[in-house]
Amino acid sequence: GTAHGSALVKVGRTTVMAAVKLEACQPDPERPDVGFIDVVMEFPPMCSASTRPGRPNDESSFIARRIEDALVDSRAVDLKKLSIKTGLWAWRVCLDIYCLDHDGSVLDAGLMAALAALRDTKVPSVAVDDRGKLTYGRVGEKKKKDGGGEGANVASVEKGEESSMIEVAAAPVAVTTALYRKQLIVDPNAEEEGLADATVTAVMDRSGRLVGVHKPGGIAEASETALMH
To answer: pTM, whole model, 2 decimals?
Structure first.
């Protein structure tokens, strides 16, 4: 179906597209007043020469998990605001991210695309009736016109708000740095990442608070001394 929000981001030659689809679902019984964010990262064969069709890509699952962690840990999206009706309905934000051109620093570009797509997302108006049935579109209380007494209710529903936007409260930023022969390279391209002894991605929110640090393998230890000097 049509996405509720989308965005295209370029960082150097790296090009990433993100699309958001909203699904109404039952919340977790242990957390009945919060919704969900699910992130999927895909590397189609056209994005780089090293990508092969049908072959599992460890990088895709790693980046998807890191983006999901960044969105949740930075509280970019308040999961409680994804609740439709406590204990009955909540929004599941399905965030699909596609790398169209892989030339390094994909996590950085992917996080930017995810945030931009979330800001572009329009939340459909919904209503939940007394029986817990969810209806799309704004629904008001209906009245009987004939019989049953004046003003008797045919159906009583909770009014859904008009189509609204997802509130993105924070803007976490990912910055990837490569360590090559004791030299630091910021925003490395694919060739530089391939030659690097190690790469490290730091995720920070707009206040400068560190949200996460990720090091996907490498032959060298990315110590604080090596990264800061």
So the answer is: 0.81
